[in-house]
Amino acid sequence: MNNNKITNLKRLSVAVIVGCISFPVMAVPINWTDWTSNSTVNSVYTALGSITSGSQTVGVTYTNAQGIGFSQMNGGGTDYWQNNRAGRDPATSPYTSTGPNGVDNIPTGTDILALSRQGSQTLNFTQAIANPVFAFVSLNGNGYAFDQDFEILSLGGVDGNDCGYWGCGGAEKVVVDLGGGNFEYQLNSNNNGGTEPHGVIRFTGAFDAVTWRSSSNEFWNGFTVGIQGTADQVFPCQQNPNLPECQPTTVPVTGTLGLVFIGILALFRRLRIVG
To answer: Which residues cross the membrane (predicted)?
Structure first.
């Protein structure tokens, strides 16, 4: 058998296999909340907004019985989402990250809710949403304790990111066992590299509400929230297993790789006959 044919066939085999099992590692475009109105009734603060994801619109309600420091809505005020007071650069922003779970885009506009008081607060969504991300400014001496697990995606001054508007600072996740099968997931400043954490955390899965507790009174630390999409868009088969695209296929368990190896074997046999 011709050695050149063997070499070329080996190269073809490797290329086909790698092409079948390699996937691009790209960050996810996030749909951020457009905060539009707020009110305070009997000391309970409520902010209303919406998120547009493709053809769907999700209503967002934030409620805080303690009240807040201030809010910026409808595109006004200071851009606290910029890089170190030097304008926006998505490549080095404290609010963007790489990888399949990364955030591709900085929060839209200047909308922000600035917190200042210790206590519990809740975000409610009018329909189930998928993989929400929580962008925060100047966590400083405060901390947040969530009812859902999360991962830290990015921080200002870490992994090549610029500092945030108020500076740099590290943060960490601390899991607290509350007993009875209940846990609290805390986001706390750790003062590594500074005392002004800015960044993004991500919750994985489908949600219609997220609750957290601010651990101290501190003026101020701010946030906004975004989503990868609605649960129907991101997890269609989990939401509706009866969809046609969610039905079992007739392809054997071996799948595409099995078919590739069968094809390669056939090529070997053919070249052997030709040789």
So the answer is: 249-268
For 144-207, give the DSSP string.
Answer: EEESS--EEEEETTSTTPPPBTTB-B-EEEEEEEEETTEEEEEEEE--TT-B---EEEE--SEE
Does pLDDT of 261 surpass 90? no
63-73 tens-digit pLDDT: 999 999 999 99
- φ/ψ of residue 134, rounded to 5: -125, 110
Contacts of residue 244, defined as CB under 8 A and 6 or more positions apart, other chains included, come to none
pTM of the model: 0.82
Question: Distance (Å, rounded) from C-alpha 116 to C-alpha 66?
Answer: 9
Q: Domain spans of the chain?
A: 3-23+251-274, 31-238
- Taking only the tens place, the pLDDT of each residue in 129-169 is 999 999 999 998 899 999 999 999 999 998 899 999 999 99
Residue 220: cis peptide before it, omega within 30 degrees of 0: yes
